[in-house]
Amino acid sequence: MTATPLKDAAVVAAPLTDDAARRRTLYALLECLRSAQTSVRAYGLRSVLTMLGIVIGVASVICVVALVQGLSQSVTQEFQGLGGNMLTLRAETPL
Q1: What is the pLDDT of residues 8-57, one digit of tens each?
Q2: Do 79 and 87 form a contact (C-beta atoms < 8 A)?
Q3: Between 1 and 54, whose confidence is greater?
Q4: With a threshold of 0.85, does the pTM exceed it?
Q5: Rg (CA), the chain
Q6: How far does Cα 80 stand from its chain's mean position?
Q7: CA-to-CA distance for 27 and 61, rounded, in angstroms?
Q8: Residue 10's pLDDT is what?
Q9: 83 in the Ramachandran plot: left (φ > 0), alpha (ψ -120 to 50) or beta?
């Protein structure tokens, strides 16, 4: 049994030049954008509802963070308004 020359020979691809690599990357990016644009046009209502959900979600997170920061500042100002820098809490249980 002898080996054929094609199976033993290693196929070495020529390295891509920077220009060819850039063109290939740009083409892949453009192809992704075309595909996305086609999908958005084909499923318009789904795309609008998805964008609306994302906008509402981001807005709600921003509102919650703003409310928590405002509440924190308000509580800090209340404690500073008491005049002292110590607060003592006592738990009393009626008998």
Answers
A1: 555 555 566 788 888 999 999 999 999 999 999 999 999 999 999 999 99
A2: yes
A3: 54
A4: no
A5: 32
A6: 38
A7: 37
A8: 56
A9: left
Residue 84 banded pLDDT, cuts 50, 70, 90: low
d(CA 80, CA 75): 9
3-state secondary structure the chain: CCCCHHHHCCCCCCCCCHHHHHHHHHHHHHHHHHHHHHHHHHCHHHHHHHHHHHHHHHHHHHHHHHHHHHHHHHHHHHHHHCCCCCCCCCCCCCC
Burial of 58 (0-12, 13-18, 19+ CB in 10 A): exposed
DSSP 16-38: PPHHHHHHHHHHHHHHHHHHHHH
* Residue 4, CA distances (Å) to 1, 7, 9, 11, 57 in order: 10, 6, 9, 14, 63
The full length of the chain comes to 95
